[in-house]
Amino acid sequence: MSENSPVSARLDLAIRLAHEAGGIVMQYYRRGDLAVERKADDSPVTAADRAAEEHLRRRIAEEFPEDGILGEEFPERPGNSGFRWILDPIDGTKSFIHGVPLFGTMVAVEREGRSVLGVIRIPALNEAVYAAEGQGAWYQADNAEPRPARVSSCHRLGESLFLTSEVANFTAIKRRDVYDRLEAATRLSRSWGDCYGYLMVATGRAELMVDPIMYLWDAAAVQPIIEEAGGTFTDWQGRRTIYSGQGIATNGKILDEVLAIVRGNEVE
To answer: The whole model's pTM is what?
Structure first.
């Protein structure tokens, strides 16, 4: 893909914007006076979420005024260019509120119904992973030069690290059995979740990340990153989509074993 292509130009901006938004979020991190509100679905939101998304929207409108914008905190802005930005200013707001550094800013761009690029930035750890279709996935830490991001080479679920965002979400959809069976089938399970879990899979530090409940802004940046890193991002039926409201990211080598468990079948 040409460096001057429409996707490449948007990836360059997305990388910069994720860094800028992360800087805004960090101004609020671990502040004792941070006010937490509850949205209609009882999920938390803070001034940091809103300030970061407002900044992202403003900058995108300046650079690509014809593009649409969908974000978690404000109404959708339609566009007519065929491109739509999908924003999650703080993915992992619960971690952010409690001073846990595993939250991140997610920026994605969708083109004609398909996510073509994504950026995940973890500002408290100064880590980022990003990708665009056909350009590979890249990991950057501590302002070092970016290096290729690749999933792990582990071939067995029994040797894998399994991550999720919130165990209670399996219970919420009446599929706690899936969590219990995955926990029993894997070497290690942890709730280092939200977007950090997907960064872990993309960089080969974990083999499996499963979310029973995902919104579009949770999934849009993840798919191109995981796929360009050599892995798979599917829904619980094994479909390659960001629209099902659930997600499974793997290194690709254990996907069949995972889907067998999710579907209620025995692993051979």
So the answer is: 0.94
